[in-house]
């Protein structure tokens, strides 16, 4: 990989230990994946935030890195934090403080694009949360690989990333055409479609035709499910996403999705209400329209839920929901908006045993944690719930 | 026997090989306090990688695995060197932040646990020494 004179000096340690380590990571990844050079990035989004995931090992690394003077050089936000007991929360706060000390804005969300971390078409970025990565690549047309925690942090510090993978035009072409014959209409249908495609395709770049999503939230949900059950980081939707016109270069295989495929996913996550003790909305973090919809559905229901309903959302969205009165309505019916956190990365086993959700991503993770799972649209969940 | 690979992290080491023929997850797969492999799917489960030259095809699992490699180093339980067939983000990043010599592009099916090896990561060379068997 070609390095500029300044990059060579950083690598040689002329600018200190933290920059040197960060540069070593970028150079090693560039060499592994055949990058020709480093390219500047506009923003970073760093994973490795929940104490449940990074543990004492991660905290030690971050502490050492802060002591070595690590500072980010581009606008950087964080992945969601975890929720746990007092001891856990103390550790969690320490993690956030360490990131703050590096100059990172400690808004912790998988939807940074609802706040100030919103790239534009064609921007190179280094993001790590898989649902944010697929949103940025597919819906915005920004360019990022699926970074790991340390590699996105290294990119944030240096302000650059190796030029490989989805930063290059040729890797953004479709590798499979998905002809959706199934009727895909609601939010949960999109969640099930995404889950099905992730599991079927692995790490392809699908070109999806035959769907007409009613809102951006449906695409957000489909992508998140794809990125969780598989490792897809970019998809195109005919007539919808910004790069679909250039996406088909060669003859690629076509697969079809039938009603039975969608039904099979939903049947897999259809545990009985008697096994469910909480409702989870907002994976990825809910948008303001999603929060508004939940408030309206609860009002229509007219009586409080017997089991708690949690909406996870970014602090930015929660602030708006507070100001607009949605939070108050939701709380009246035994709901809560949890800001900047994520149940998937929280040690909540034992607190709850079964979740009802409209998220394919949450369905995937909570099933793998051994929970009972019911996947359906928010409308049905709020209507049917005890 | 000499095998030639490519440098990921420079440095030299000599020691006993511990070889897995299966992808290895560090998060949840290696105990950072003891260096013992706990990954249920691993063929070296129960063995210690501390102070050994660790060879396996490639990493798998969570990217947080990089921090586990860092913790192994801080706890004095890290391998002396890492040999893989195919480097990927998790293990490469872990080896860099922990400063563990690492070589990629080695056919690990040719390596056997218990043998002594010498590794020069800068030139990418792995030499399996006479085992005395």
TrEMBL record, chain A:
Metabolic or biological pathway: Isoprenoid biosynthesis; isopentenyl diphosphate biosynthesis via mevalonate pathway
Iron is among the record's keywords: yes
EC annotation from Swiss-Prot or TrEMBL: 4.2.1.182
Keyword entries, A-Z: Iron, Isoprene biosynthesis, Lyase
Domain of life: Archaea
InterPro entries with a match to the protein in the record: PMDh-L-like_dom
One GO term (biological process): isoprenoid biosynthetic process
Secretion signal span: none
GO molecular function: lyase activity
Boundaries of every Phosphomevalonate dehydratase large subunit-like domain copy: 1-383
Reaction catalysis annotation: (R)-5-phosphomevalonate = (2E)-3-methyl-5-phosphooxypent-2-enoate + H2O
Quaternary state and interactors: Heterodimer composed of a large subunit (PMDh-L) and a small subunit (PMDh-S).
PANTHER family, A to Z: DUF521 DOMAIN PROTEIN (AFU_ORTHOLOGUE AFUA_6G00490)
Protein's name in the database: Phosphomevalonate dehydratase large subunit
Organism of this sequence: Thermococcus profundus
UniProtKB/TrEMBL annotation, chain B:
Keywords in alphabetical order: Isoprene biosynthesis, Lyase
A single MF term (Gene Ontology): hydro-lyase activity
Pathway: Isoprenoid biosynthesis; isopentenyl diphosphate biosynthesis via mevalonate pathway
Domain Phosphomevalonate dehydratase small subunit-like: 24-103
Domain of life, source organism: Archaea
EC id: 4.2.1.182
Top-rank EC class of the record's enzyme: lyase
GO biological process, one term: isopentenyl diphosphate biosynthetic process, mevalonate pathway
Matching InterPro entries: PMDh-S-like, PMDh-S-like_dom, PMDh_S
Signal peptide residue numbers: none
Catalytic activity reported: (R)-5-phosphomevalonate = (2E)-3-methyl-5-phosphooxypent-2-enoate + H2O
Listed HAMAP family: PMDh_S
PANTHER family referenced in this protein's UniProt entry, alphabetically: DUF521 DOMAIN PROTEIN (AFU_ORTHOLOGUE AFUA_6G00490)
Subunit structure, as described in the record: Heterodimer composed of a large subunit (PMDh-L) and a small subunit (PMDh-S).
Task of the protein: Component of a hydro-lyase that catalyzes the dehydration of mevalonate 5-phosphate (MVA5P) to form trans-anhydromevalonate 5-phosphate (tAHMP). Involved in the archaeal mevalonate (MVA) pathway, which provides fundamental precursors for isoprenoid biosynthesis, such as isopentenyl diphosphate (IPP) and dimethylallyl diphosphate (DMAPP).
Family of the protein in this entry: Belongs to the AcnX type II small subunit family.
Protein name: Phosphomevalonate dehydratase small subunit
Protein's organism: Thermococcus profundus
